[in-house]
Amino acid sequence: MNRFWGFVKKEFYHIFRDARTMIILFGIPIAQLLLFGTVITNEIKDAHIAIYDQSKDEVTQEITTKLLSSGYFVLDQYLESTADIEAIFKKGKVREVLVFEAGFAQSLEKEGKAKVQVIADASDPNVGKLLANYTSGIINDYMLKEMGEMQLPMQIKPEVRMYYNEGLESVHMFVPGIMAMILMLISAMMTSISITREKELGTMEILLVSPLRPVQIILGKVAPYLGLSIINAVVILLIGHWVFGVPIAGSWVLLMLESILFILMALCLGILISTMAKTQMVAMFISMIALMLPTILLSGFIFPIENMPVPLQILSHAMPPRWFIVILKNIMLKGTGLLYVWKETLILLGMAVLFTAIAVKKFKTRLE
Amino acid sequence: MIKVESISKSYQATKALNRISFEVTQGELFGLIGPDGAGKTSLMRILMTLLVPDEGKASMSGLDVVRDYKQIRQLVGYMPGRFSLYQDLSVEENLEFFATVFGITIAENYELIKDIYVQIEPFKKRLAGKLSGGMKQKLALSCALIHKPEILVLDEPTTGVDAVSRKEFWEMLKKLQQQGITILVSTPYMDEASLCDRVALMQKGEVMEIDSPARIVENYTRTLLAARSDNMNRLIQDVRNWDEVESAYAFGQFIHVTPKRNEMEAVELEKFLMTQKHEKLQVNEISPGIEDVFMALMKEKE
Q1: With an 8 Å Cβ cutoff, is A201 touching chain B?
Q2: Residue B194's domain spans which residues?
Q3: pLDDT tens for each residue of A75-108
């Protein structure tokens, strides 16, 4: 036991004395979280619009006010002719132009309908679609409230509510994803690098000829990173909760236990990588390419799994973060208990056991 | 104490060790002498249970290096060729780490390492990476000794170390030997061979000769002449081109010449060289050193 603690102490010296390691361990996760949380967002905020109001009556004024007070739109300017539309889009700042037909209020009153054209800059299709949706949503809302008393025959009013994320805030989506990504990266990359470093510097030779058993070496390597990764997980959750307002509806204890399971799985994966890689560079390369990219692309973190081609969907089953993200979303957003995530938990557990088994089997007690 | 029986080891196509056999007795200071690529490191790694031989058997203190590798790792001390301590740990922390790895405290075996460690103790708070070459070696030796090994295996401990530190290092080895530790040491420096009890001269994976340095030299019966002049480059060319000469090598400020006839005297060579218009000539007969023997053996092999 003493040997083990001696080894762990040495590992902590390595970690705390290397500025790069400290930055990767604590600087990068926080920076990534803040970046992803604020930069990658599907929401619209202060989109610039222009309005070509050919009617300039009471109703068009009211709609305009409602649009601008929604917080999504900022008025860039009023246009005076159809030709201005093209010109203002070309300038690039304005993302959407609203055109009210002449005599808007009159025709609404007389015929029960009036025309407003929404022209969106779809050079960024997602943003264009979102803008158009938001605009028509706001106009519809106005119509229903203001014109409600007119009692149009048989209107179906779908009322949509976005459960678990009423505001459709993307940060709720991203925090679990970033957490999975960071824990995966830190745990797997740092352990694999720290083991291959011993190989590279030749100290592995001395460790091997010492009475330390492979299990002691492996556990001694894993223990410090397990501790530090748990701290990381807590920090991410706290930032997510207090800075980005991501709810944690379920149990904190379950959330932490699941996180520890995922960290362990990633650490085992790191050891597995280190048994294959001879140098730190190779270990880092494998961790980055083989772990980072699939985590981002195939785990459903950014791109929905349902929309992927079938082969990739099948491949995504092999991605540990995929299951962890499901667990996180369930516990954090839906507040469900273990009963609803036992399947994913079992899968992660299975992966951890599998990786450990291969790693221990592949760990060499000799140099070759 | 160490027994090697016709060990062979290959890496892909290259044969690193070819049927090597020797024995080292209890308390002996045994040297593996040979240039880079002679197979010294491979042999030591096999003995240290780090590599498995392709053929042959070896044992350390009666334990088989393949089967009983776990027990062997308890009772041997090893200093690899490259400085293999933690550079980001201080002198003291390194020593402490290796002590705990072997399940002991520094205090328990302090007596053994005391002579060596006191020399680096003033720098015990310094990071190992910031030590000079000689101090690094002393620290590495301390770490290899901290668990009081029966056998000490040192792979080129003095490579890249200054002359004074080298001398000190060998004095330390002698002291350790007096405490009953069996020592196997490798070195590319021929001058260090004479400091060993017995040496194995190695070349290209084979042992050319095993004996005490003195006897190796004694058994060498060829005449050896040393020569120098004001133009050494031309001198060595001229000597080599003379059909009375078997071989000639540069040795520091002289060239060592092995004539074909053992009876040849220094004057004969001098006369010949005078005909070649060499000036400031200096030729005399010398007794061979271990390096001369090594060169001759190498030539014989070819």
Answers
A1: yes
A2: 2-212
A3: 888 888 888 888 888 887 888 888 888 888 888 7
